[in-house]
Amino acid sequence: MKREFVIEVLITILKEIQSEVRNEVEEIGVSTCPFGSMGGFDSLMGVVVTARCFEKFDIKDDNKIVSLFEPNKSGEPVSVGDVANKIIILNFIWLKIRLI
């Protein structure tokens, strides 16, 4: 799975969700940190985007991950690029599990 594709899909999902809750859609890029820089983005929106990403990328995690947008261990908010990396790793793990 190419990172650029994951980023593109993730940005599309973020914009769709944002347009559902706001009248305007902001510019979103790979370095955008949704928490703090996207108007209206809160923990609930993080859960909704996570669910849509899992559905889009056919990832199953047995509800262990509530949100891909949880801050890093240092407490810093995650960027779109960080979330894309998580999706790629989860997709790889899920593919390996299905092959076993």
**SSE string, helix = H, strand = E?**
HHHH
Distance N terminus to C terminus?
20 Å
Q: State the major sheet.
A: none
Strand pairing plus helix content: what structural class?
mainly alpha
Written account of the structure:
This protein has 100 residues and is mostly helical. The protein has four helices and no strands. The protein has helices spanning 3-21, 34-37, 43-56, 80-99. Helix 1 (3-21) packs across helix 3 and helix 1 crosses helix 4. The longest helix is centred in the last third of the chain and has 20 residues, at 80-99. The two termini are 20 Å apart.
Could you write a compact summary of the structure shown?
It contains four helices and no strands. The chain has helices spanning about 5-20, 35, 45-55, 80-100.
Write the layout of secondary structure elements.
Elements: H1 3-21, H2 34-37, H3 43-56, H4 80-99
Kindly list the characteristics that best describe this protein.
single chain, 100 residues, mainly alpha, 4 helices, 57% helix, globular
